[in-house]
Structures
1.
Amino acid sequence: MNSLKPVDATRSRGRVAPELHPVSRTPEEWKSILEGMGERSFRAKQIFQWIHRGGVLDAEAMTDLSKELRHKLNDAGLSTPAEVAEVQRSADGTRKLLLRLTDGYSVECVLIPMTRDTDEAEEDDEEGSLSGQQRVTLCISTQVGCAMGCVFCASGKAGLKRALGAAEIVSQVLIAKKYLEPGETLRNLVFMGMGEPLHHYEETVRSIRLITHADGIAMSPRRITVSTVGLVPGIRKLGQDFAGKLGLAISLHAPDNETRSSILPMNERYPLSELMAALREYPLPPRRRITIEYTLLQGSNDSAEHALRLVKLLRGLRCKVNLIPMNPIDASDLQPPSEEVVERFRGILAEHRVSCSVRKRRGDDVDAACGQLALKQPLVRLRRGDDVPA
Ligand code: SAH
């Protein structure tokens, strides 16, 4: 039963063994553990449902289990891998949850009510409208800090502290659901918080399998979007593993290698030719598009020439472009372009029939906007003895 104890993540800078935390177990894994304990295997589904559907981690509250099994589960340490340390609410309704992990690190997730003017237009309308319900998007993190080093991103500036285990990723959803307000429904999940989801591919994929499991949160993969800086092998594998059903967002940010490498160091490893080949081969279902994220940085990637090169690069790719005027961060002097320059860029794309929108800033009064999920507070709370990020 020792194996049910939460992993001591402090020992692990890179991987956190997922099978060691009960929240990261699939029903099948629960089954073999229970059988090893001499328990009936159908209990596996019950326990999984309590945790993932009910958000319950107190075994005493699992009322359909025997007293004996409840005690065994409690003794084995059925504890939460993350606890809410702070909640901040923005004037626009965005809620940022600061979660403390068992080893002292913190990460954040952000609940973002969707607005009619922007997000609804991007929604596919296969399911009709959810009458009277306010749809909410949840943005979650996959790492404490990030190793990708993108020059305009606060998480990148912090450097990688460690990967999150699948239990810690799933827990963000379980916890955030408790912060939905009456009339709100969790509609979309985006892996766009701190960290690079495809850097620790196995943890991310395990978390998605848990989140989409019919006995758990049961979220449709079509409502989940994984955003990546462009780790090509991971993109290819994700396409295969989920048959293209997962939403894919690519942080492109530049239409040529020279510009892109100056912003995203990872471009040296996976240059545009390789990335674009992987995108063209991604098994997109009909009517679905890849999201191309393009953060506009004044004087770096925002010229008319860049826009025209982008049009050319994306030709023939089923995609929509999301322009994000950079959110300024303390750790960088880079700035967003003026509104006129943003509009010129958007206009050039539109003129060439590239589908495109300008992302609205949400929650920036609580530093929940893109790239601000770290540092200021500092939100990557450092444990004693850690270096303070530059
Ligand atoms: N590692 C993933 C998720 C990162 S965050 C990725 O690279 O896609 C999600 C998006 O926010 C990315 O497109 C990222 O480039 C962008 N972003 C990061 N910092 C930003 C900032 N300061 N202003 C605007 N967008 C930013």
2.
Amino acid sequence: MLSVLRKIVQEVSTAPDLDSVLDLTVRRIQRAMHTQVCSIYLLDTISQRYVLMATQGLNVEAVGQVSLSPTEGVVGLVGQRAEPLNLEDASVHPSYIYLKSTGEERYHAFLGVPIIHQGEVLGVLVVQQNERRRFDESEEAFLVTVSAQLAGVIAHAEATGSIQPVGNNVENGGERFAQDRRFSGVAGAPGVAIGQVFVATLPADLETVPDKPAKDVDKELERFNTALEAVRSDIRAVSRNLAQRLRSDEQALFDVYLRMLEDNALAGQVADRIRAGNWAQGALREVVAEHVREFSAMDDAYLRERATDIRDLGRRVLSHLQENVNSQDVEYPDKTILVADDLSPAMLGLVPEDKLVGLVSVSGSGNSHAAILARSMGIPTAMGVVDLPFTRLEGREVILDGYTGRVYVNPSDDLKNAFGEILREEQMIAAGLETLRDLPAQTTDGYRMPLWVNTGLVSDVERSLERGAEGIGLYRTEIPFMTRDFFPSEQEQLQIYRRQLEAFAPRPVTMRTLDVGGDKALPYFPIEEDNPFLGWRGIRVTLDHPEIFLVQVRAMLRAALGFGNLRIMLPMVTSMHEIEEASKQIDRAVRELQEEGLDVERPPVGVMVEVPAAVYLTRRFARKVDFISVGSNDLTQYLLAVDRNNPRVAGLYAPYHPAVLRVLHFVAQEARKEHKPVSICGEMAADPGGALLLMAMGYDVLSMNSNNLPKVKSAIRGTSLAKANTLLQRVMRMDDAEAIHEYLRTSLKDMGLGNLTRPVLPGR
Ligand code: PEP
Ligand code: MG
């Protein structure tokens, strides 16, 4: 059973479409369980009937024709109860009905299991046997396991439009998408955008290559042939180098590779696809995928392994094709919506800023670093749109709703008009907020709340100053590290840091030491871990690499010469000894520079509270350092045990969870007991409702993305500290995160601050 299961899982994951998945599933199950019949019924969402979609043993003519209502037959009963039904003799069951058109015999043994995805019944998987018998526990477990595997595939097919509601399709550019076809993800950065898709391809990652019409077929063929030739000569070179060390049969593998690349094999098929109109990279992806699928489905283990070779060859050809594409050849649409399988901070700079109107990522979540930077840039963003068929969207017009994380493909004029209206409203609100720039963030009863910004991108400095930022509460130094090919030198870092310090002087600039790991990878310093958010991150990395830490601190100290506005902040601290260790390194850097004759002073040093252990050590930490800053993004993920980067649990990532609020309040009180300033630099401070609560909790500084600063300032100027205190007291008595969020939204509206909350959005 186990090997059959493994085979089904493998075949299902490589099958070209849903029909093939269903078909091969019923065939394999029927053979493995020795039943007369195996069938799959799927619930049609429009007719609300279970339609026979695949069968082995019944009349194939009945597929797509025979259907049952949820109250009909034992199949309907399985769907209704959403649990397995195992009957020794179904024919005597009160729900039993005989379906003549399926050509079935009057059967006795019946086992049906529901196909459930995210709590919703999508269909029923059934086996039948003519004689009386009871299916045993292991057979039931087998069917349940297959059904769980099927559920994900069916849900994905429904979401991507492989199964379409009847009569709702339009033909568009050769690809069928229902009008206003909606794909749901999670909110990344607020705002809406209407634009054309440009798919960002990862280097040598075939799966992220989109289809695109070949502009010049001959040129594409030439590019492909050049790339092929380059791969051939790479293979020959490797083969020569290893000639002494390999046996002749091992050496023959290289000849196999070379033959695969010949005209009558892979190369010829790719060339045909190019002639049919796809660009070289898209044609290569199609052909490689087909071969991989065929090899993966083979019974012979040796032949199955060849799928890996084909994939590897495809990757090699692709990387040469990508080398041959000049970045200046890339033409971005005037209103580009950049779509990526996994949007990384480094990709945000791909498209010229005046052309970039939106960002979409298939993976990741609202608290991934790419989303945080997108918010800072003010670019509407949807994250975790897991079902988006992004390779088929190149050049298409889409609407992006960054408030809810939805993407609409093939939008109707009505939907475009409705979103166009919201775009205009947003522009008016933004223009209104601009007038606040030089006004203080002061409540109506005279309480002054310093508003600082989080930076990282070069463009952040100008944007922040334009919006009236009073300091930098978090400069994410890892961002400039990410867009390079190796660690920047001390001199390079000095120049990067100086720009921030100089632009803001005399206002304070808080520079966080390198915080890599988690979802922040450096291309030249890969960290492979099963559990990266619980792994080698932040201060753990830099304390293990004092040479990197020391160079960074020296660069910061030198960059601040003459400005005196530097503050150094340590990320991901969990223990006292980390602070002591880092302090020693900072003292050493100061001493070294002084010995070199530079007039540097030890700057204020602070720690971030972003893991639960640090929460309970806040007072002790506060005695050792000059300031405390709460990183509520990580603190929320660690308190709630919810990966900030995982769209599947994005709904559980709740900044207004009562436990999070309690902890935030506690940290502010603890730091104050030691008379040390306490700030917050997580995204919560950027939400107008959150900012009012944090002000009431006693935070001395709120640091946020510059884009939201005017909204937060407007909220603070529109209310009193007394009202914020009342709001906090109420909220602290509430038990449910969603109820708290909703209460904050309505309270802001009641205070006349409704325009700072999310607009009413169109769409189903
Ligand atoms: C945080 O964790 O809240 C924080 C500000 O740091 P980052 O988002 O860069 O991890
Ligand atoms: Mg953090």
